[in-house]
Write a structure and sequence with these properties.
Helices cover about 5% and strands about 50% of the residues. It is mainly β. Bound molecules: beta-D-fructofuranose. Beta-D-fructofuranose binds next to strand 1, strand 5, strand 9 and strand 13.
């Protein structure tokens, strides 16, 4: 009886919450699958860490405006990486500066001595950005600070002896990503420093020793390096461990503006070395930036889970949303594979995402020759899985497009001449004054064999494309003046067979 009453009570509470959220989160363009702040500005995800049944997401947040400004750490928690509960702002600016990007870890061994009653502290290490010093023309205005929480991230105490890593006189000196290494029994911090990364080590998170620098002449250098990450990853199906370095760069991404490159190599506790000279990219779309991975995922789970900011500095402050501005990408699992003896990262949606599927309809085989009506009266969010077979020749272009009654559209497909997947946003309905948003973005791709798999996850104002189970990913936003209601298949100059597939209706995370 007691049980029935309490479950009824819980159901009642949930009911109330859902009613609220439905109203609150139904604005035009408001993502229904992706995390967004309740209101105002967000950029990078920060301090992603798992602790005691909760995934924590902190994020760059300006609570007074929908454009970037003095940064705070916003906060949300989730039990399943998909549905997030908003919590009050976690870390506020103080006399040392605004709170820029950084990371969080659980200090299981209490190396900081900041734990209490046998409970490990949650430690956040972030960049202080001192606006006053910057305005005075000084170059030492970014340094690393530490805050800790003894109540599951709900309240934070700033470390009394901040900063823990002072600035050596370098303007861009930020975005510490800290992790414990079982192998080396030390903490490591990777930091973005202008055009390279610095790797530091520590016994206690409070004092840091510079071990090495990486990247001066390696990878992409079209802009400043930001938000790095460094972690070991097993090569799928083997016992070989490689180290992965993620480095965001702005500008200088393959399709303009912000993007995240990565390097696969080895780390000996001091230096990171790679054979790779050219950058590889986590996502070739325009809208996946500053992504890093969660800390402290339990060993028996073992995943490397990544989330990025679904935006691009070229137009982040201008995208036509009200109330809030900025979202994360969907959480993705990173796996390490090889092809033609080259390493690459495969990105797939986390398995928890599957719980959002409310109905799934299989698609019968059809031949596409020109335009073919596919889904009318489509309701986003939706997932579309398409398995193509190339019969004779590949058509010049083929794929899918989303269209509304005003002929605004977004085209997602493969371009034979360009040997690339593409997302064509030229007619999506919105552009920034510099015309950097409404463009075609490309991902070079070597088609091998006659089969091709495309997975599309379409939310109210974004599409995420995964090719061949995550061999490549592309994430782009779109802002039509009226919702896209029709989805069509197409091929240009040639035919292609859609062998089979699925259309999956997805539940909004607010319902
Ligand atoms: C990346 C970034 C970081 C910085 C933060 C400031 O988008 O520029 O380098 O810490 O945003 O909000």
């Amino acid at each position: 009886m007691k049980f029935i009453y309490s479950s009824l009570f819980i159901a009642f509470l949930f009911g109330c919450k859902n009613q609220d959220s439905k109203k609150e989160y139904s604005e035009k363009y408001r993502p229904q699958l992706h995390f967004t702040p309740k209101a105002k500005w967000m950029n990078d995800p920060n301090g992603m860490v798992y602790y005691d049944g909760e995934y924590h997401l902190f994020y760059q947040h300006f609570p007074d405006s929908t454009v970037w400004g003095p940064m705070h750490w916003g906060h949300a928690v989730s039990k399943n990486l998909i549905e997030w509960e908003h919590l009050p702002i976690a870390i506020y600016p103080d006399s040392l500066g605004w709170i820029f990007s950084g990371s969080a870890v659980i200090d299981w061994k209490n190396t900081t001595n900041l734990g209490k009653d046998g409970k490990p502290p949650m430690i956040a290490i972030y960049t202080y950005h001192n606006d006053k010093l910057e305005k005075e023309g000084r170059s030492n205005f970014q340094y690393q600070g530490l805050a800790y929480s003894l109540d599951k991230g709900r309240t934070w105490i700033k470390y009394a002896k901040n900063p823990v890593l002072p600035n050596p006189g370098i303007r861009d000196f930020r975005d510490p990503k800290v992790s414990w290494s079982e192998q080396f029994q030390k903490w490591f911090m990777i930091l973005a420093v202008v055009d390279h990364t610095n790797i530091y080590s520590s016994e206690n998170l409070l004092t840091w020793k510079l071990e090495s620098e990486f990247g001066y002449k390696i990878g992409a250098h079209g802009g400043v390096w930001e938000c790095p990450d460094l972690f070991p990853l097993k090569l799928e199906g083997t016992d070989i461990t490689k180290w992965v370095m993620l480095v965001s760069i702005n500008p200088g991404a393959p399709n303009g503006g912000s993007g995240t490159q990565y390097f696969i190599g080895d780390f000996n506790g001091k230096t990171f070395k790679t054979q790779q000279e050219v950058a590889k990219w986590i996502d070739y779309g325009k809208d996946n930036y500053a992504g890093v991975t969660f800390s402290d995922i339990p060993l028996n789970d073992g995943r490397r889970i990544f989330m990025g900011w679904m935006n691009n500095w070229q137009y982040a402050n201008l995208i036509p949303t009200n109330i809030w501005r900025g979202a994360t990408t969907l959480p993705r699992s990173l796996e390490l594979l090889t092809e033609n003896s080259e390493y690459f990262l495969k990105t797939t949606l986390v398995k928890e995402f599957e719980n959002l599927v409310i109905s799934s309809q299989s698609i019968e085989s059809k031949v596409v020759n020109g335009e073919l009506k596919f889904i009318s009266d489509a309701k986003f969010p939706i997932e579309i899985d398409l398995n193509f077979t190339i019969e004779n020749e590949i058509p010049e272009k083929f794929g899918v497009f989303l269209i509304n009654s005003k002929n605004e559209k977004v085209v997602i497909g493969f371009d034979k001449m360009k040997k690339s997947f593409f997302i064509d946003n030229t007619k999506n309905g919105w552009d920034n004054p510099k015309k950097e948003f409404a463009i075609v973005s490309y991902t070079p791709y070597n088609l091998i064999g006659d089969k091709l798999k495309m997975k599309l996850v379409i939310d109210k104002s974004s599409v995420e494309l995964f090719v061949e189970n995550g061999k490549i990913a592309m994430t782009n936003q779109f802002f039509p003046s009226e919702e896209f209601r029709n989805i069509q298949l197409f091929s240009e100059n040639g035919t292609i067979q859609l062998t089979n597939g699925f259309i999956k209706n997805l539940k909004s995370i607010y319902k």
